[in-house]
Amino acid sequence: MKMIRTSVRLIHTSRRLLQSAPEGTSTALPQKVLGKGKKKAPEKQNLVILNAKQSKLYKRKGHRSQENTVKKLDDLDLSQIQETTSKLLNIFDKSQVFVTDQELCDTVNAHKPVNLQMSKQRYIQITNELSSAFTLKQIRRYIFKELSSLYAPKKWNKAQLIDAIVQKGWNCKISKVINPSDDLIQTRSFFLTKKKMFLLMSHSSIVQNWMRANVRIVLFPTSLQLVISANEAHLQYIELALDSLFNNAKEQDVDLESVEQLFAITGETLPLEDIQRLSSVYFEKKNGDEPHLYTMSSLGDRKFTEAKRLILWSLDYNPFMKAHSHIDTISPNVKYFKTFADQSFPWIHRKKNWYRLKEPKTINSKTDEIKIDSNEIYKELNSEPSKQVSFKLEDPQDVVAVAFGQLLQSSNKGDDPKNKTIFNTEIPFIHEKVLKLPLYDSEGEQIDTTVDNHTYYAQIKLLPSPFNKSNSYLEYPPIEFWFDIDERESVKKDTLQVLCITNDQISNVSVPQSITDLKFVKSQMTNLIDGYRTDDNWLKDQPGIREFLMNAKLNFNGQEKIFVPDYVDIKLPGSKEPVRYDYITMCHRKQLDLRYHGRLVTYAVIEGGSLGGSTSEVIMVGNADELNEEGFNSLVSDAISFAKDLGE
């Protein structure tokens, strides 16, 4: 079983990315008065207007009059909340500078009151707001687009048009039974720093709570201005809430010098904007002689650890891995096809464009034979490691395998020097095809679907911490924790294996005429701990791992919230002091062990959460005698045959 476990982790499944908030922030045109009644052409600003009616967040009884009864607002709508949240998180998008007709209409409609029955003073307040906020041309444009049937002669001035909008277009009525003191709305402006604006908008539940109280919120991102319209009681509460919110914000310094050096090695840049958005942590460079020193700000300490984890995840760099790619871009029979980065991708890859080289099919076209130079692949897998470890491992194990999936490139130009390559293990309709194979340990040819034949694993990936000028990342290899999961969906901690992967050799082969490309991998690894013992001596020489297991909550049954400690101190062979490893990702694996031509084929459904994504993985594991060149040719032959069967 140990052989199977170590073989399964060979292929590093592509990690997944959080979709960014949708675009569409509303904009409006505030006015500047030059003289008597003359207005300058409005400046273009980003503007977000939120009120209870637009997002359907507010519900209360309307005032009754003798003639009409105000209808109740719609119940709370979760989709509207999510849309509002997306707009809030998108306020820093500087590309939105053009005002469309729809944005103008949305901005005017934001002034429409929730309760159409109102006092005379409230009516005057609304008409004055419209008059000061919009030009005559904008008012006419709004009527043309939004209220085309409204009677509005060209000779009417702005005041007459506004009266028509409020009375006839919006059906607002003046009621004598409404107390003006309860009906009047006041407006107050708050000028914020970039950090304060970010913290407020990244925790949108705070704003949503205000909106439930019929508070209108207007955001000017370029001028960092927050304008709130509400009654006096609500304004006082919001002002106190803002002071409390910002006074309780947490700060922590972090040195990213080593991290930025690692990104420079890969030719990539640190995606700080994405990390800020996903973690709700604001990064600000500190003034002084330390150019790599940042101050992180958030409304909770736990967010700082999450931000660091996303930084390491986005690095996506393993100095102990060497990869080769074989892609034929010269053949006239192949072309690039764009691949949609869905939830099977990790968050770091979802915002990029990806392309796969394929051979277009026609009704009468004949599929070319798959040809692979197995000798060249073998030499690549057995070449010198990209980096030697500084310590000696006892009884290292070499394993060779083939993964099936799609070899993707970030450019549809084969000669692009900045082209990045990833391997996505998701294959369309793979489930139905692999389940035709028999179980590996079964003598029969069909799987008994009435019995759960899966095995379940939890996989945790750890990397040496590079923060605060540490050089551990380049010195020590990645480590993975593997656990069995029992029938109650609880992790069996006594099944822990600590796999230290000291060498990964990868050879990616593009197969345009097939539904799958091939990824050949040879890995060297060792288990750093002994098997479980019932006495107290188990993990006595690894107190950091022991503490990690005591604090971790790794149950997938939903009875308690999963908790993975932020780091673990691991003692490596020959090291006097333990090395700190940071937690990066965890996934749940549901796996079937199948048989093809007498060899092991594993099919796994992998769930990595909203950031890691959900995908599947098919791996053909090589036998021990296929580590030599002659035996390796047999593995290549079976991999080609299996790829053909998947396409039929």
TrEMBL record:
Residues 343-642 form the SLS1 C-terminal domain. Residues 21-40 are annotated as: Disordered. This is Uncharacterized protein. Residues 99-174 form the SLS1 N-terminal domain. It comes from Cyberlindnera jadinii (strain ATCC 18201 / CBS 1600 / BCRC 20928 / JCM 3617 / NBRC 0987 / NRRL Y-1542) (Torula yeast). Residues 254-314 form the SLS1 second KH domain. InterPro entries: SLS1_C (IPR048401), Sls1_KH-1 (IPR032741), SLS1_KH2 (IPR048748), SLS1_N (IPR048400). GO terms for cellular component: mitochondrial inner membrane. Residues 183-248 form the SLS1 first KH domain.
